[in-house]
Amino acid sequence: MPASEVVLDVRGLAYAYPDGRQVLYGVDLRLGRGERVALLGPNGAGKTTLVLHLNGILTAGAGTVHVAGLPVADEHLAEIRRRVGLVFQDPDDQLFMPTVRDDVAFGPANLGLRGQELADRVEEALAAVGMGDVADRPPHHLSFGQRRRVAVATVLAMRPDILVLDEPSSNLDPASRRELAEILSGLDVTVLMVTHDLPYALQLCERAVILSEGVIAADRPIDQVLGDSALLAAHRLEMPVGFAVPPAPVRERGGAGVWKHGG
Predict the structure, then answer these.
(1) Neighbours of 229 (CB within 10 A)
(2) Core-most of 14, 68, 69, 107, by most CB within 10 Å?
(3) What is the CA radius of gyration of the chain?
(4) Of 184, 189, 154, which Cα lies nearest the Cα of 172?
């Protein structure tokens, strides 16, 4: 893809924790503007370690990470963290202010936004996730699904280039799961989704990357990855029983797979 379209460029990324445990062994990954990519892999594969390098929470032992052409380095961290928005699995890790409005305003206010500009940014982000009517409520009064949507809004308020979602469908009831999928499918932003929920990945992403034992084991269109049962089994991934992956032309973004009753 043309360099101007690359929003994330990871090359040769290797990392070992201070105790000497090597987790990444030379990862190469490129995301183009507007792509929706599922990052799959068994527990312990290095997915979280990789994600924490994308906005400088961890620093590469070897290799490089560039976001929109900027190297992830100390002198660029403020801009990198604006461009790469992480939505953690537990929304309570991101929501800590007295009201929803305060939580969503926190990041843009730290960028220096004030007054009407800040208010407009908060309103825009809450509207994007359908939570404008709870702006003045304490986050802890909301349901888990509502808190997850507010957590997404706190990141969208920064107008990121890349939205990184850690297990976005976990602990959601069916209605909340569907509502979040509708919201995510309508966002005009590059998405990297870390998930074990393969049907959700299929619903929302066009491409899948399997990270296994610290290396990229597969990087293909998602229907090819999820339709390869041998590949999935080799990396401790499984589709639900009875779930069939339709051919790519049949699927549309936001559409689900096909449940075949009786196996």
Answers:
(1) 12
(2) 107
(3) 19
(4) 184
